[in-house]
Amino acid sequence: MKLVIFGQPQAGKTTLFEILTGLGGREKHLAVVKAKDPRLEEAAKVEGSGRITYIHISFVDPSSRETLNEMRAGDGLLHVVRDDNPLNRIDQVEKEFLQRDRETLEGTLERAKKEFSKRKDKGLERKIKAIERALEILSEGKPLRETFSRDDVEFSGLGLLSLKPIIHVVNSKFEEIPSLKTLEQTAKGRAVVVMDLLTEKELLQSGEEERKLLMEEFGIKELKAEKFVQTIYEALDLLVFFTVGKKEARAWTLKKGGTALEAAGKIHTDIAKGFVRAEVASWEEFVQAGGWSGLHRAGKIRMEGKEYKVKDGDVLNIRFNK
Ligand SMILES: Nc1nc2c(ncn2[C@@H]2O[C@H](COP(=O)(O)OP(=O)(O)O)[C@@H](O)[C@H]2O)c(=O)[nH]1
Ligand SMILES: [Mg+2]
């Protein structure tokens, strides 16, 4: 999963990159971060797993020349705003996305229609219909993400910006955050988060003891940086499930509402093809029982079929025919 940071010069983009990756952004523009998850660590411990594999998230802080291409290639966008009127800025950016997507889609539609006049292809016809519908949505002033899924094959490879989930990070001083709190919201594929990037960076760079003292002194209860991965999952509409064995304990993402069969497909297409059943426990049950053998003894393993809707924090063991 790749997230691309953008925003105006001096907004705090590189500062956000440094916070999220722990790296100096001036030298590096791309970093892969392991999303630490204490639930997975506990599950691995009771099972005695040899290694832990976390979810990997790539963050990009592109140079201004590369920004648009990187944004088009990203799975999600992080917009950093430092502005006296942040909502205004956010609206402006979202409007610009609509305009750019309109241009992209109009070009694609023209080419697809030309092609269709030569070759009456069903897939092409579906694509034309989807693009026409998308152009309608855009002309109503709505982003594509509210109506379409980013997995829709009709739009794949087009780099449509308003189809991508976005987190607007409003960079403000801690003193101002209480009055800006009302900006914070989450809607489908979109979140607004208010955070003081410079202060959070300084706090994260100081030792644990010092950080505690400073936070108390300033009356800061929590750092947004520490919950940021969760914010990303929410904006991208993802849940996390685990596979836990003797060899490896591993975290996986799945779109919310995804089924056991789709989860199996994430692990391996062969596992999905030969799917027999899913053995399921919540990570709490798993840890309390002391892993698979404990669950087995207590008769607490749930047997679920292909259509089971996976929940955030589920531990899954997919039985399949080779
Ligand atoms: N005063 C102030 N400076 C900030 C804030 N956030 C970032 N900066 C500083 O502004 C400069 C630009 O920040 P940077 O993260 O490099 O912005 P970028 O151009 O968007 O990458 C740096 O010197 C930061 O230390 C802020 O909230 N207040
Ligand atoms: Mg920068």
In short:
The protein is of the alpha/beta class and 322 residues long. The protein is built from 13 helices and 13 strands. It folds into three domains: 152 residues, Rossmann fold, CATH 3.40.50.300; 78 residues, DNA polymerase, domain 1 (Orthogonal Bundle); 83 residues, Ubiquitin-like (UB roll) (Roll), CATH 3.10.20.
Describe the fold and architecture:
The chain has 322 residues and is an alpha/beta fold. The chain has 3 domains: 2-83 and 165-234, P-loop containing nucleotide triphosphate hydrolases (Rossmann fold), CATH 3.40.50; 86-163, Orthogonal Bundle (DNA polymerase, domain 1), CATH 1.10.150; 238-320, Beta-grasp domain (Ubiquitin-like (UB roll)). Helix content is 42%, strand content 23%. It contains 13 helices and 13 strands. Strands 2-4-1-5-6-8-7 form a 7-stranded mixed sheet, sandwiched between helices. The structure holds guanosine-5'-diphosphate and magnesium ion. The site of guanosine-5'-diphosphate has 13 residues, from helix 1 and helix 7.
